[in-house]
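Memo to structure team: turn this sequence into structure tokens by end of day. - J.P.
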Amino acid sequence: MTGEWSIQDLAKAAKTTSRTLRHYGDVGLLEPSRIGSNGYRYYDQNALVRLQRVLLLRDLGLGLPAIAEVLRGERNTASALRSHLELLRQEQDRINRQIASVTTTLRKTEGGEQLMAEEVFDGFDHTQYKDEVIERWGKDAYERSDNWWKSMSDDDKRGFQQRQIDIATDFANARKAGLAADSDEVQAITQRQYDWITVGWGGKKPEACAFEGLGQMYVDDSRFTANYDDPHGPGTAAFIRDAMKVYADRM
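Reply from structure team:
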């Protein structure tokens, strides 16, 4: 197979689904190079490179509208790839900082040392997820949270971050103690998680579906899974997800 790929072959090679590729086509991100008499979509090498760009930008946290805007502004493929290579190198640096941050957190947690918020969150920047947040929950949700964050003092920010560390640690300890996600003890921790998210959303309380969706994202999105599992042990993110679902079901 050279020069052209069916939608099934392309989906398999890109480790995605035909449904996703069709959706990309429907929103103007990835048009097929031709459609056969049987109605099947086929893609040439230009489409292959474009899909690579879409997936790379997706991995960087951009939402589909933002990706479309980036691609509309690019005409030279080689220049676009060079720009993206630089973004990947920046992302590599950020990930290396996250790895160092999680390593420090793990070492201090196992050694009983005091955690510092600056160390724990080195490499984590909430603004990099702007387009993703807007796509998921709307522009108002992002702006409300962003304005609230910018209004805080450095001490308040450290306190807010430390509060989440404490909540995640209590979740992990509850899981290790064998407590059930629907137990009173775990649901009390989940209430603190709900309150913490409410503060982060600028005082707007998440509805049940949004709260459950956030919990599911902790498992589905490897970035969030690592934030919980790496310092606290595999299964912590899933345990929090289960606890948040129970809480949402009871709302």
